[in-house]
Structure formats: structure tokens, C-alpha cells
């Protein structure tokens, strides 16, 4: 039986779990943009609210870390994990906001590849939310999480490249291409940010093994 001198304060793990669950909410809202006649303004406004919620969670986590003498995990790892979860939500909110601000709702529908990126992000969000509660016991299934998250990130990269091919195929007007590419870049950054979260979880698991 492994013995640890570190306290097992549930509050820290709850911060990570709540942040991840909030991101699931964000990716679910973002996915609405792939539906016919989506209310783009509503999507943007709700994503801003979810992003603000994540900011509050991150600030509370930092305050908790700063006010705790002995933390259950490496202090820097917890800062990094909290920041990376916040980064994911920042990119998701930015993508939805740009669709609204750029008036891209006037398109008949978003490119198919963009909808596929929404799906990749939802899958990454789901497995991340499922993994966060397992940090406390360092469940052995966490390895499956970071492997799958990295695989999904590779899928996201592939879809992103195919989206760029489509954008520069001549199907869209030049200004629309620039707008869609900015949205695509934020989606790709969100996929990468999920992978950063998974890599940090792997680092924590190795240290705590």
C-alpha cells in the first residue's frame, strides 16, 4: 500500500473536475454551430458566460494553492493544469465569438470539416471530464485517457489540414476564407490545448507513481 505524506484535499480535485465539466458544456454549445439555422449570437453569448465561469474556477484554484501550505500534488503541476484547462475554454469561446462577429452565419452551413472539428473537441472534452476525478487515486485508466486524447488531437490535425485544403480550393470568396481560417485556427489551438492537458496529467501520474 502506497503511503503519502501529502494531504488528500478533495477541493483541488473538484476544481479540475468542475473546470473540465464546464468545458464539456462549452463544446456542446459550440457544436450547435453545425446545426441548421443555428442561433450564432446565442452561441457566442453563452460561450462567453461559460468562459467567464472557467476564469472564476481558475482564480479560485490559484487562491487555494496559494493559501495551502502542503498541496496534494506538485504545486507547479497544479498551476499548469489549471491554466491549460482555462486555455482550452479560451480557444473554444474565441472560435464561437469569431463566427458571430464575422457574420459567418450568413453561410448556408459551415464547412463539413469544421463540423468534424467540433466533434473532435466534444470527444476530447468528454474524456477529459471523465479523467479529472481519477487524479485523486491516480487510477491506472488515466493512461488510456492521455493516449486517446493524443489520438484525437492527431485526428483534429488531420481534419484541420483538410479544412485548409477546402478553404483554399476556390469554393469561398477570399474574405470569407480569411474569416473561416481564423475560426479554424482557434479550433486547432483548442485541440492542441486538450493535448497539453493530457500531457500534464501524464507528467503528474509519473511523478506520483
Description:
By secondary structure, the chain is an all-alpha fold. It is 75% helix and 0% strand. The chain has six helices and no strands. The radius of gyration is 18 Å and the shape is elongated. The model is unreliable at 1-5 (pLDDT under 50).
Summed up, what is this model?
The chain is an all-alpha fold and 209 residues long. 75% of the residues lie in helices and 0% in strands.
Architecture blueprint of SSEs:
Layout: H1 10-31, H2 40-66, H3 75-101, H4 112-131, H5 142-167, H6 174-208
Helix pairs in contact: 1-2, 1-3, 1-4, 2-3, 3-6, 4-5, 4-6, 5-6
Q: How many strands, what sense, and barrel or not for the largest sheet?
A: none
- Distance N to C terminus: 12 Å
Q: How much helix, percentage-wise, in residues? A: over 70%
Low-confidence runs: 1-5
Label the overall shape. Answer: elongated
Beta-strand percent range: under 5%
Radius of gyration: 18 Å
Order of helices and strands: HHHHHH
Q: How much is the average pLDDT?
A: 93
How many beta-strand segments? 0
Q: Count the helices. How many?
A: 6
Amino acid at each position: 500500500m502506497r503511503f503519502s505524506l501529502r494531504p488528500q484535499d478533495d477541493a483541488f480535485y473538484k476544481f479540475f473536475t468542475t473546470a473540465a465539466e464546464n468545458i464539456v458544456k462549452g463544446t456542446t454549445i459550440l457544436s450547435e454551430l453545425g446545426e441548421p439555422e443555428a442561433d450564432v449570437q446565442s452561441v457566442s453569448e453563452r460561450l462567453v458566460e461559460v468562459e467567464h465561469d472557467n476564469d472564476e474556477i481558475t482564480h479560485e484554484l490559484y487562491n487555494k494553492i496559494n493559501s495551502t501550505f502542503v498541496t496534494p500534488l506538485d504545486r507547479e503541476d497544479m498551476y499548469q493544469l489549471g491554466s491549460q484547462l482555462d486555455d482550452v475554454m479560451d480557444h473554444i469561446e474565441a472560435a464561437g465569438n469569431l463566427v458571430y462577429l464575422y457574420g459567418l452565419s450568413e453561410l448556408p452551413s459551415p464547412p463539413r470539416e469544421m463540423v468534424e472539428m467540433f466533434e473532435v473537441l466534444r470527444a476530447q472534452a468528454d474524456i477529459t471530464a471523465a479523467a479529472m476525478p481519477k487524479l485523486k487515486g491516480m487510477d491506472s485508466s488515466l493512461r488510456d485517457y492521455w493516449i486517446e486524447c493524443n489520438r484525437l488531437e492527431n485526428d483534429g490535425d488531420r481534419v484541420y489540414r483538410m479544412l485548409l485544403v477546402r478553404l483554399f480550393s476556390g469554393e469561398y470568396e477570399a474574405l470569407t476564407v480569411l474569416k473561416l481560417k481564423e475560426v479554424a485556427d482557434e479550433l486547432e489551438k483548442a485541440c492542441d490545448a486538450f493535448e497539453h492537458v493530457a500531457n500534464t496529467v501524464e507528467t503528474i501520474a509519473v511523478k506520483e507513481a
